[in-house]
Amino acid sequence: MKVLGLMSGTSADGIDAVLARFEGPREHPRWRVLHSSSTPYPEPLRARLVAVGQGEPQTAAALLDLAEAVTVEQARAARSCDPAGEAELVGCHGQTLWHRPPTPEGRGASWQLLQGPLLAQLLRTPVVFDLRAHDLALGGHGAPLVPAADAALLPRIGGWRAVLNLGGIANLTLLPPAIGPERQAPVTGWDCGPANTLIDLAVAQFSDGHLGYDRDGAWAARGKVQNALIARWLQDDYFHLPPPKSTGRELFGREDLRRRLQELALAAEPGNSGLATQQADALATLTAFSAAVVAQDLERGTRPVELVLAGGGAHNGTLVRELRQRCRGVMVRPLSELGVEPAQREALGFALLAWWHHHRHPGSLPSVTGASRSAVLGVRATPTT
Fold first, then answer.
1. Cβ neighbourhood burial of 44 (10 Å; 0-12, 13-18, 19+)
2. CA gap 46, 61 in Å, rounded
3. What's the fold here for domain 2-143+344-381?
4. pTM of the model
5. What is the pLDDT along the chain (385 residues), one digit of tens a residue?
6. Do 221 and 318 touch, CB atoms closer than 8 A?
7. CATH 3.30.420.40 corresponds to the domain 147-338
């Protein structure tokens, strides 16, 4: 079956699309990527999405318009990846506006903006969407969901393999070994903390909105890392919560960046007052902080033999170098060496979740999300003839 996956992450920079074929056993299907593409959001739309994701008040009418605009862009991305309309089914994540993890007092909630029936009509193809709600209803975090796809699609090796997605948020999947006493251990995964959220927000602020991200980490590479400050930041409460855990812009957003930039300014060396130098140092420290969060998680838990990188941050050379330096004893390699380009992983995962939905196969892992049981994920919208 040919399935199109659409994914737009916390960074809200655009939509990754993958057209894939799945066949065979549900738990470990045979699969192949047929086409892929990345479609950036128009900048005015991206700015609105980031603003709403940071809690900027909006009227109901404005939110309705925003949902329609996002849906139209999802359709455009789908056509870019699949111009011949080969897909028999579409799995679409939508655009996260807000994520509220569960607490001991109550269930969590997560808002992925999308008009699923409209997308199905625009593409003339059934669409599976709202993929987090069932897990949340069962007491889970509804995130991360892609570890289930990692476990189904990626081969296991002689030791633990970690898959690190460097999107707006850094999230990990830990896959048990193929052999040995731990081969029956459950797959685990969680959101570590910020990957690109704080970096991108800082770049936009420092460039007066002219830049959306630090290409290859070149700006950060000119700065000096404040390791003492990173050590203090690593004591923040979220980083010491045990999995399952999930997060997003609601915790690592503009207000969090403002606080960290204030601390960076106070920690600046005497005489190091030039604006350009301060900005480069800030980006160097924020980039190293993203790597340090992951390294701390790996030090505390199961130690993998390799760390496979996916997501937009895998193209940030400075971030990758920081990961290699801080995750000592772990081989760091790109996901592309396993046949999946970094930008394809999550879209491929949501294509698989839609295929699982079609076959009524559970798509969630309670060992990752903390839900009371696994569930078939998503709601299906079928176009009317």
1. exposed
2. 18
3. Nucleotidyltransferase; domain 5 (3.30.420)
4. 0.94
5. 999 999 998 888 899 999 999 999 999 999 999 999 999 999 999 999 999 988 899 999 999 999 999 999 999 999 999 999 999 999 999 999 999 999 888 899 999 999 999 999 999 999 999 999 999 999 999 999 999 999 999 999 999 999 999 999 999 999 999 999 999 999 999 999 999 999 999 999 999 999 999 999 999 999 999 999 999 999 999 999 999 999 998 899 999 999 999 999 987 766 656 899 999 999 999 999 999 999 999 998 889 999 999 999 999 999 999 999 999 999 999 999 999 999 999 999 999 999 999 999 999 999 999 999 999 999 999 999 7
6. yes
7. yes
